[in-house]
Amino acid sequence: MSVQVGEILEGKVTDIMNYGVFVKLNDGSIGLVHISEVSRDYVEDIHAVLKSGDDVKVKVISMDEKGKMGLSIKKALPMPERKYKEQRNTRTEKNENTDETPESKLDNMLSKFLKDSDEKQLYLKKNFESKRGYSKRR
User: Fold this and answer.
1) Distances in Å between the alpha carbon of 8 and those of 4, 11, 15, 41, 81?
2) Does the predicted TM-score (pTM) go above 0.70?
3) What are the domain boundaries of the chain?
4) Tens of pLDDT along 51-88?
5) Judging by DSSP bridges, how do beta strands 69-72 and 20-25 pair with one another?
6) Do residues 52 and 13 lie in contact, with contact meaning Cβ atoms separated by under 8 Å?
7) Beta-bridge partner residues of 20
8) What b/e readout covers 63-81, taking b as 16+ CB neighbours within 10 angstroms?
9) Any idea which architecture 8-76 has in CATH?
10) Three-state SS for 1?
């Protein structure tokens, strides 16, 4: 049985290193799950998440000409649909409730930035002159 990139397979954790875990797939081949591909959350210590002998579901994400496989546990997990839909709905509701076009929104942001920048420069100039003893009589 030939393993293809994109397949989701089951395997068993055989070795744990600081940089990831090696997983033996059911067909006997071995691949590496890098620590960044273990979970959607940050993993500081891989030993706290997995141990030798754990059964895992992995997705084949890469395969080189030498046969080395890159695997991912987090990509084998189903996508969290609910969060995405909530974010998308919130974003569209905000756009529907305002009559701003993207161009006018950009213009508003730029004018606010320029106003804030001018205020900060004026404040810095006043403080600099008062500390240096400059007078405005020049």
Assistant:
1) 9, 10, 20, 20, 19
2) no
3) 8-76, 100-132
4) 999 999 999 999 988 888 999 999 998 877 665 555 55
5) unpaired
6) yes
7) 17, 34
8) beeeeebbbbbeebeeeee
9) Beta Barrel (2.40)
10) coil
